[in-house]
Amino acid sequence: MPSLWQRQKKVIIAIVVIAILAVGAVSAALLLRPPSQFTIPLWYNSDGHYGDTEPTVAQVIASAIERTGKINVQLKSEPWAQYTTDFGNGNLPFFLLGWYPDYFDADDYASPFLGTAGAASLGSQYSNSTMDNWLAWEAGNSSSTVRSQLFTQIQTQLANDVPYIPLWEGKANIVYKNGINGVFLHPVAFRYFFMSNTNNPNTLNVGTTDRIKSLDPAYAYDYFSIEIINQIFDTLLVYSPTNTTLLPGIASMIPTVANGLVSPDLKTWTYPLQSGMTFSDGSALNSTVIKKSIIRAITLNLPGSASFLLSQVGELGNTTSTAKPAYTINIDANPTNVTFHLHQPVGFFNQLMAFSVSAPVPIYGTNAYNMTGAQPTQLNKVVGSGPYKLTAYTQDQSLTLAKNPSYYGPTIYSTSGFASVPIIGTVNIKSESTATQLKNDIVAGAIDMAYRTLNPQDITSLQIQASSLGLKVDFGASPQIRYLVFNVKTAPFNNVLLRRAIAYAVDRSLIINNVFNSQVDPLWTMIPTVMNYSIPVFQLIYGSVPNLTQAGNLLSQYGLSIFQTLDISKNHL
Amino acid sequence: MPRRGSLLAYGLTRLILAFPMLLILLTVVFTVLRIIPGDPIYALYGGRAPLSVIMALRHQLGLDKPYWQQYLTYIVQIFSGNFGVSLGAHYGGQSVIAVIEQKLPATIELSIGSMLVASTIGISVGLISGINRDKVVDVVGRLYGTTIFVIPVFWLG
C-alpha cells in the first residue's frame, strides 16, 4: 500500500498538471482569439509646424475613426524635419498634412496630389495613368468649359480612390483698430498699400508671429517673406485688391489667346511692358532686366526656392545652354515686350507671372543683385519696383516699409477704386515672440493690427471684446487646406475599402467646432471653395456627417474577423 | 621654464598637429550631420515640391552618393575653399564664403581686441602672481585665472 507521502505526491502532480493545462488553454484562448479591434497608426507633426492644435486634431480624428468600433487608432508624432523625410520617403502609412498654393489655379491643388510625380513626394504614392492624362490635359488647356469637365472627372476619381481625405480649409483672420480701412484678406496676396489709417494717416504699426527668411524673390518660398516681397516688388501681373482677378502690373496688358498675345497652342506668351519703369534706386526696369531676372531665378535654382515653378511647372526649361534644346530657356527681350517660349503648353502661365519668384530684380548698376547666390536680406540690399521700399530691418525683430517715391505704377489699381497707392506712407512690422504677446499688444493698443497668427481662443475672445476694445476682427477665405494622406501602396491602406470606410467615419464638425471654434470651414475636396472648379465630392459621396453604418459595412467587407496584427507603425522601403 | 629650443619644438608640434585635429573635427561634423534624423532637402520643401525637384536637388548637392564619396567630396571642397551655398535660415541661398568674407573683418577685430585684453590681463596677473609666489596675491591671481577659465565664454562675453 502506498505511503501517505506517495499518495499526496500523486495528487500534487495531478493538480499541477491540471493547472498547467488550464493556464495553457486560457492563454491560447486569449492569445489566439481574433482581435476585436484592428489597429492603425495615425501620424502627425509634433513640433508646431501646423500650430499647437495639431495633437488635438489628431486625437479628434482618432476618436471619430474608433467610433466604428472596429478600428483602434494609435497616435504617433515626429518633429517636422523627420516628418517630411519620412513621408517623402513613403514611410508614413497614414498621416496629417497641409497645403498652401504657389499659384492661384485649381491645378495647384490637383497635380501635386494626384499626379504620379507629385503624389510620390507627398507620401501617398498614388498613381493613376488616366488621372495623369486628365491633369496634363487641364494644365495645357485654357478653355474653362474643358477644364471644368476635367476637374469634375478628377475630383470624382479622387473621391472614389481616396488617396486623401480633405478635412478643412483655413480662414484667414486679422484684428485691427477701428479707423483702418482697405484691409483685404486676399487669398493670395495680402497688401498694406491699399490701407488707410484715420487714427494716424502716415503710419501703420503691425504685429505678427512670422519671421523673414529671405527677401530675394529667387529664393523666398515661405508665406511671410513672400508677403513682404509683394509690398516691395511688382510682377508682370498683379492681383486685384479684393479678389483673384489678375491686373496688368509691369506688363501693360494681360496676355490671352483672344488678344493674340498668347499663341493658340499656349506655348508662346508675350507681355507688352509699361514704359519708363525704374526700381526704387532709379535703375532701369526693362525687358532685358525682366528676362535676366527670370533666368537668374531658374539657373540659381537655390535649394528650397520656388524656381521649379518657372522651370518645370511653367515649362521654361532650366538651362541657358543651347546644347539641350528640350531644357533651354527661351525668352525674347524686345524693346517694348518680353516673350516667353514654353516647352509644353501651360494654361495658367499668367498666374505664375504673378507669383513672387518671377519678380524682376536689379541686374545692372551699383545695386545689381547677386548672380551667384541669394541676395542678402539686409538694408540697402533689397531693391524692388513695388509701392514700398525697405527702410529699416532688424533680423527676426522688425522691419519698416516706406513709400517708394520712384514707383512707376501708383495708378495701377485705379480701376479697382484706388486712385494712387500706397496710401499709408510708413508701415512698421514687428515680429512678436509668441501669439500671446501678439494678442496682448493689440489689446493694449501697442500695435494697430495683428496679422498671423493668433491662437483660436484669443481670436474668439477678441471677437467678444472687439467693440469695447475699439477693434475689428475680420475673417476671409484662405486657400490653405488640411487633409489626411494614405500611403496607397502600403498594407492595409492599399485596400480602397478601408480608405473609404475611414472617409465615412471622419467627423469634420468635431474638428471645426471643438478645436478651431468654428474658425475654419469643412473641406469636401482637395480644391478649396475659393478656387474655380471646386466640387464637394466627398460630401456628395460620403455625406456631411459621419456614417458609421456604412463605415462598418465596408470594414466588414474588408474582413476584420481574421488575425490582423501587422506592424504598420512605420514602413521601411 | 622650457628651454628656447623646446619652445620652438612645442610650437612646431602644435602647428603640425593642427592638421589632423582639423580633419578629426571635420569628420565628426560630417558624421553627426548624417546621423541626426531628418533629411535637409525634404525639410526645405516640406512636401511643396514634386519628387523630381527634390531628387534633382539631392543629386545636385551630391546627397544621393554613397557616404564615403560624400565624405571625400566634402574634405576636398573644404580644403579647396569651396564651401557651397548655405541651407540655413539666416544665410540661406548665400555663398558660405561670401558670408564669411562679410563677417571676417568684425571677427578679426574682435579676436585681436580680445587677444590684446586677454594678453594684457593674463601676463600682468601672471607676473604679479609669480613675483608674489605663494602669497595672498598669488592665490587671488590663480583663483581669478581658474574662475575665468571655467566660466563659459558665450555667457561671459
Give a brief rundown of this model.
Chain A has 573 residues and is of the alpha+beta class.
3D architecture notes:
The complex is a heterodimer of chains A (573) and B (157). With 573 residues, chain A is α+β, with helices and mostly antiparallel strands. Among the domains of chain A are: 38-169 and 477-558, Dipeptide-binding Protein, domain 3, CATH 3.10.105; 233-419, D-Maltodextrin-Binding Protein, domain 2 (3-Layer(aba) Sandwich), CATH 3.40.190.10. Chain A is built from 17 helices and 18 strands. Chain A has helices spanning 4-32, 54-66, 80-88, 111-114, 116-121, 129-139, 144-161, 223-232, 287-300, 307-313, 349-352, 435-444, 456-469, 496-505, 508-515, 537-542, 548-558; strands spanning 38-45, 71-78, 94-99, 164-177, 180-181, 196-197, 203-208, 237-239, 246-248, 268-272, 330-333, 337-341, 388-394, 398-403, 426-431, 449-451, 471-486, 521-522. In chain A, the strands form five sheets. In chain A, strands 3, 4, 7, 13, 14, 15, 16, 17 and 18 form a nine-stranded mixed sheet that branches. In chain A, strand 11 and strand 12 (337-341) form a beta hairpin. The radius of gyration of chain A is 29 Å and the shape is globular. The model of chain A is unreliable at 561-573 (pLDDT under 50). The radius of gyration of chain B is 23 Å and the shape is elongated. The model of chain B has no long low-confidence stretch (mean pLDDT 88). In chain B, 74% of the residues lie in helices and 0% in strands. Chain B has a domain at 88-157. The two termini of chain B are 32 Å apart. Chain B has 157 residues and is an all-alpha fold.
SS class of chain A: alpha+beta
Structural class label of chain B: mainly alpha
> Based on CA inertia axes, which overall geometry of chain B fits?
elongated
Helix content of chain B: over 70%
Q: What quaternary form is this? A: heterodimer
What shape does the CA trace of chain A take?
globular
Strand percentage of chain B: under 5%
Q: Would you tell me the overall average pLDDT of chain B? A: 88
